[in-house]
Design goal:
about 375 residues, globular, 12 strands, seven-stranded mixed β-sheet, alpha/beta
């Protein structure tokens, strides 16, 4: 029989994170606490690190099953789950950085991350320098020896789909490196295999995959993850066992979902690229993408999302979203439904207008997350709306 280490990622998504009970479905441990027999047992539970058996904010069996599965898929020693993707980012940053420390971050990132860096981090006295993530040299050049504690990147970026060279990022010595890999999922890429310190996901999206869980997770070396855990139990952004259960369920079907979504996304991106009402489509799987060769080197699948720039500005974008019938308008991605989002007025509303312009978030840009519908139905919906 093939060992777990030799299995393909799609197979590991089925087998990872199981306990010894033999249950085909993950067990839901809803308990918030466990009893102990004596004071020694209570002391042992209170001083244990990231271990089940005391209080659910410290660790929960269902949540740990999800964490073990993510660690196995990412090829890391450990993982740690949170109540959301932003909970994962905030807890990790505050666990690693203190007043006077310095972060290097790419300019094109999820708006919630930018708001966190520009708000709470600045208020706490943590300095942030922004760089062009497409230029592999800018991250290293911005590092301030003895002060830079963390380099924060996102690849592919949301919603521009810019890529970070993971090998170049992982080669930087000194600060910790953290990659938001949400758009790729663990079956699309594994940043830690390139030397990156921490991989992070908003597991709410493609990992859980059914729009019914709010969940974040990080993966990396055990010593580092345990150190972040020590702060995370104080920060309190603890993953719910109910959401972790849905995250595990989503992992079981991630392989077939991502393959179908990626294939449909590529076909739609190709079709829209040739449409006269479209200026440009941003998708790493297209040969026209400026970093297509990099995508082929470090991504196993190109993902379920792309963005499209519509001719006619914001009015054309508004008309398109109003005319679509099958494709829905909602600010999330990775689920079974194909969704469209006007980033400038929703997910990236809080981003400074100058930064939006510099990073290509225009009034005519729409992000599309491809679900599980048939390609022909989605193409017909776009064709009718664009007409």
């Amino acid at each position: 029989m093939t060992s777990a280490a030799d299995q393909e990622p799609e197979t590991r998504a089925i087998t990872a994170g199981r306990d010894e009970s033999g249950s085909l479905a993950p067990a839901l441990w809803a308990s918030s606490a466990w009893d102990v027999h004596d004071l020694d047992g209570a002391h042992a539970g209170a001083t244990a690190v990231h271990t089940v058996g005391n209080y659910s904010r410290y660790a929960n069996p269902t949540v740990q099953s999800f964490e073990h599965a993510i660690a196995e898929l990412e090829g890391t020693e450990s993982a740690l789950a949170f109540a959301s993707g932003m909970g994962a980012i905030a807890s990790t940053v505050f666990a690693l950085c203190s007043r006077g420390d310095h972060i290097v971050a790419q300019r094109a990132m999820y708006a919630g991350t930018l708001s966190f860096l520009n708000g709470p981090c600045q208020r706490m006295g943590i300095d942030v320098t922004y760089v062009d993530g497409c230029n592999a040299n800018e991250f290293a050049a911005a590092v301030q020896p003895g002060k830079t504690t963390l380099i924060l990147a996102e690849t592919p970026s949301n919603p521009q789909f810019e890529l970070i060279d993971l090998a170049a990022l992982g080669a930087i010595k000194g600060p910790f490196t953290m990659v938001d890999s949400t758009l790729a999922t663990p079956l699309g890429q594994q940043p830690c295999k390139y030397g990156v310190s921490i991989t992070m996901h908003s597991a709410t999206k493609g990992i859980a995959g059914h729009n019914d869980a709010t969940l974040g997770v990080i993966a990396g070396e055990k010593e580092l993850i345990d150190g972040i855990w020590s702060y995370s139990v104080l920060h309190g952004a603890t993953a719910s066992p109910f959401d972790a259960l849905n995250g595990l369920r989503g992992l079981r079907s991630l392989g077939v979902r991502l393959r179908h979504q990626s294939e449909t996304a590529l076909r739609l991106a190709e079709w829209l690229s040739a449409h006269p009402a479209v200026n440009k489509v941003n998708y790493p799987g297209l040969p026209s993408h400026p970093q297509h060769d990099l995508a082929k080197r470090q991504m196993q699948q190109f993902g379920s999302l792309f963005s499209v720039d519509i001719k006619g500005g914001v009015q054309a974008a508004r008309r398109l979203t109003q005319q679509l019938k099958l494709i829905r308008n909602a600010p999330t991605f990775g689920g079974p439904d194909t969704l469209i989002t006007h980033s400038a007025t929703s997910t990236h509303l809080s981003v400074d207008p100058a930064v939006k312009t510099a990073t290509g978030i225009t009034d005519s840009l729409l992000r599309v997350t491809v679900g599980l519908e048939a390609f022909e139905d989605l193409r017909s919906d776009f064709a009718a709306a664009l007409a």
